[in-house]
Amino acid sequence: MNTFASLLPDPGLRHDGRATDEMRPLALTPDFVPKAPGSVLVSFGKTQVICVCTVDEGVPRWMREQGVSGGWITAEYAMLPYSTSERKTRDGVRGKLDGRSIEIQRLIGRALRAVVDLDALGARTMWVDCDVLQADGGTRTAAITGACAAVALAGHRLVQAGRLARSPLRELVAAVSVGVCGGRPVLDLDYIEDKDAAVDFNLVMTAGGRYVEVQGAGEESAFTQEEFDAITLLGRKGVAGLVEWQRRELGKLGVAH
User: Fold this and answer.
1) What is the mean pLDDT of residues 109-136?
2) Residue 27 phi/psi, 5° resolution?
3) CB contact at 8 A, 232 and 199
4) Using one digit for the tens of pLDDT, what is the confidence trace for 200-235?
5) Which residues are bridge partners to 132 per DSSP?
6) Long-range contact set of residues 31-39: C-beta below 8 Å, sequence gap at least 24
7) Going from the N-terminus, what domains does the chain have, and what CATH number goes with each?
8) Is 202 exposed, middle or buried (0-12, 13-18, 19+ CB in 10 A)?
9) Residues 138 and 188: beta-carbon distance below 8 Å
């Protein structure tokens, strides 16, 4: 039987040389889409996602009809045709979104609404588009982490333009994948690890350490309480590191959070 101690991170375990508690190399390219108020290209290793935040005056019809005050933020997610080894048909060509895309864009929206003050946004809608340029595992976690940075940039520029008194982003939010591979928990799975993981989790958390969402399942087997504890411990460490990285990258642009 596994013990909690045996599940703790063990350096040198993984196929790419990373320690089990180590993220892939991170990169954030700001203003990747120059015409948008907030945009970044975020990279978790080989996974690259373009995250763009645009702002419209006005709110969805349902908010007006129900007399709901404040603004709204929503997300869309798509994998570009060339993001995977085999070409992926565009959703527009098929005439509908696939179930996975719908699930992920709803997750991104929930993550952002957990940290955005919709009253402070006013009667405006923030649209966040996340397009996967290259997929190598963890596209949803990279999208959430990058989307938050794009929203932070957009909010900062709305304040600079005099359209808002303060940024609607209350705190940062980030997400990371954690799984059990080779009998041990590992952080930030790439595709090779993800496809063979016995247990697969995605953790979405705020900078303050609160959970927004935990998605997890035993892909090939059930998991123990000790494994669950190890997974969440590792995920919390990963999100904390991502939040510090977000702060550093945004700080270079004069955006404080």
Assistant:
1) 96
2) -150, 145
3) no
4) 999 999 999 999 999 999 877 788 888 899 999 999
5) 49, 79
6) 31/153, 36/150, 36/154, 37/153, 37/154, 37/157, 37/158, 38/149, 38/150, 38/151, 38/152, 38/153, 38/154, 38/155, 38/156, 38/157, 39/150, 39/153
7) 5-251 (3.30.230.70)
8) buried
9) yes
